[in-house]
Amino acid sequence: MTPKIARFLSHHQPATPCLVMDIDRVEENFRTLQRSLPLARIYYAVKANPAPQVLQRLVRLSSFFDAASAEEIELCLAAGARPEAISFGNTIKKVSAIRQAHNAGVAMYAFDSREELEKLAEHAPGARVYCRILVENEGADWPLSRKFGTTIESARELMLAAGDMGLDPYGLSFHVGSQQTTTRAYEVAIGRVAMLFTDLTDAGVKLRMINLGGGFPTRYRDDVPEIDRFSDAIMRAMTGHFGNALPEMVVEPGRFIVGDAGLVSAEVVLVSQRDRSDPVRWVYLDIGRFGGLAETEGESIKYRIATPHDGSAMGPVAIAGPTCDGADILYEKSNYRLPLALQSGDRVELLSTGAYVTTYASTRFNGFAPLAEYYL
Ligand SMILES: *Cc1c(COP(=O)(O)O)cnc(C)c1O
Question: In angstroms, rounded to a whole number, what is the distance separating the alpha carbons of residues 73 and 79?
């Protein structure tokens, strides 16, 4: 928790549940990545947290933006981003959204199929396009494979076709999966796209860019490697394959930029021991799967939880949300332990919840209001 957030919580005691973000930490994370990987252009993945305060700060830092819809493009433009600094990175785009982006001057577009390439050729003629390659997502706590990306063979064909269709075949992309905890995933992926890059260049296609996607991890319950480890591995792989003729490099971090810049302040609604022979207590919070903690699906992302009793004796718990849905369980199998003194009415903090929380919050399921947000 940053000092600014701590001061805000103790002075204002805002109603729970709420997300409190320190925008200075967003800036710090952006600068850290920029220092660590100075040759890459940073396209912030807007979906991680599209709050105007986040986008405006990043605009001031001359960030670029990775947007997934016409609405996210609008948010970037409203925050002051130049259209040339926006990439339409979703491989699944409505025709109306492509037209709107093209009219607004959005610079580049992702695709991973012939059908999408045809839509781009018709509705964004002349645009820069890049093809997303399917790569392994092993090592990622929140995989993004299967749904996106195409094979090397088909990417080769499509990039050759793009020029004939009046588009500018600009580059190749991949995403190693979110909360990626191994550097190897990047090395393997770079190896795959580098071979294709060279092959296409030899075939006369003027490729200029490799988009390494996002995936850089935030520290949750477990430690993760430092960002420099990822940058070193990436630069070693890139220079290994391209030598001094490095293409333009793009990264699309979401979680790394905003994840540890915010926390969710929540209230314990109930602590119960439903079965006296079972030491596991059930802790129900006023936020759950439907209040924004969607990434606890499959217990994938394991948030750290701070309580007013930290340091005292602990016992095993299952942790759930407040709704009347049986799927609204955060952790049952991940061996969470919380203080025995924890009780109804206590305020707790779910740490590093600045990414992928506000936008996943449902509206009014069981009547609960969407997550309140404070940006400091
Ligand atoms: C979600 C997403 C990102 C951001 O991923 P993080 O793991 O949050 O860094 C980047 N690029 C694309 C295409 C995405 O879908």
Answer: 10
Q: Does the CB atom of residue 129 touch ligand 1 within 6 A?
A: no
Tens of pLDDT along 319-329?
999 999 999 99
Type of residue found at 126: G
One of 3.20.20.70, 3.10.20.30, 3.20.20.10, 1.50.10.20 is the CATH number of 50-253, namely: 3.20.20.10
For 146, left (φ over 0), alpha (ψ -120 to 50), or beta? left
pLDDT at position 137 over 90:
no
pTM above 0.90, yes or no: yes
d(CA 207, CA 248): 10
Task: Indicate the top mutation candidate among 43, 116, 144 to test ligand 1's pocket, ranked by most ligand atoms within 8 A of CB.
Answer: 144
291 lines ligand 1 (CB under 6 A): no
Protein fold of 260-375 = Lyase, Ornithine Decarboxylase; Chain A, domain 1 (2.40.37)
Q: Give the pLDDT band of residue 145 (cuts 50, 70, 90).
A: confident
